[in-house]
Amino acid sequence: MDETTPTNPNVATRLLRAVLAKSFLEVLFICVLATLAAFKNYSPLLRGAIDATDQTRVTGWAHDPQAPEQALEVQLFIDDQFVATQHADAQRDDLVQAGATRSAHHGFAFTLTPLKLSNGPHSAQVYAVRTAAGVNKMLLPLAKQPVVFQVSR
User: Fold this and answer.
1) Residue 131 pairs with which residues in a beta bridge?
2) Using CA atoms, how far apart are residues 58 and 68, in angstroms rounded to an integer?
3) CA atoms of 21 and 15, how far apart (whole Å)
4) Within 10 Å of residue 82's Cβ, how many Cβ atoms?
5) Beta 147-151 vs 120-131: how paired, if at all?
6) φ, ψ of residue 12 in degrees (nearest 5)
7) CA–CA separation, 73 vs 87, rounded Å?
8) Using CA atoms, how far apart are residues 74 and 86, in angstroms rounded to an integer?
9) How many CB atoms lie under 10 A from the CB of residue 2?
10) What's the rounded Cα separation, in Å, for the pair 97 and 89?
């Protein structure tokens, strides 16, 4: 019999169980790390909404409960094209009354009139800008789907 071959079948079973347990713990560790990194960068706590969209304006609010006094930068995209950026710092007393935020300065309002959009349907999406990995930035959508609106002049 070879020296590396266990003589007792219980030794092989225990060794196999130890290898499987180690592999399971490694996978679990990587899942925890990935979840923590995603939570830090994507912040599922980020709150906001697009409240009104028409041919003249896009309004709403954006708020990060982890930085309640900070006005988030928001960017407007119309038909998947960047249009404008601003800070969500407009007065919105209704947010405090509804319990969405402690500070009323989390609103935004983009004016669409200067864009001279063509007649027909258009889509609007507003993204909160977050810093990720140093100087890189990521965009987090405030609405699950772009809001479709009609332009008729």
Assistant:
1) 137
2) 23
3) 10
4) 11
5) antiparallel
6) -65, -40
7) 4
8) 6
9) 5
10) 17
Q: Residue 31 carries which side chain, given as an amino acid letter?
A: C
Q: Does residue 82 contact residue 126 with C-beta atoms inside 8 Å?
A: no
3-state SS, one letter per residue, for the chain = CCCCCCCCHHHHHHHHHHHHHHHHHHHHHHHHHHHHHHHHHHCCCCEEEEEEECCCEEEEEEECCCCCCCCCEEEEEECCEEEEEEECCEECHHHHHCCCCCCCEEEEEEECHHHCCCCEEEEEEEEEEEECCCCCEEEEECCCCCEEEEECC
Tokens of 23: 């592999």
Q: What is the pTM of this model?
A: 0.71
For residue 98, the one-letter residue type is: A
pLDDT string in tens for the chain (153-residue length): 555 655 677 888 888 899 999 999 999 999 988 887 776 666 667 889 999 999 999 999 999 888 888 899 999 999 999 999 999 999 999 999 998 888 899 999 999 988 889 999 999 999 999 876 667 777 889 998 999 999 987
Is the separation of the CB atoms in 76 and 57 below 8 Å? no
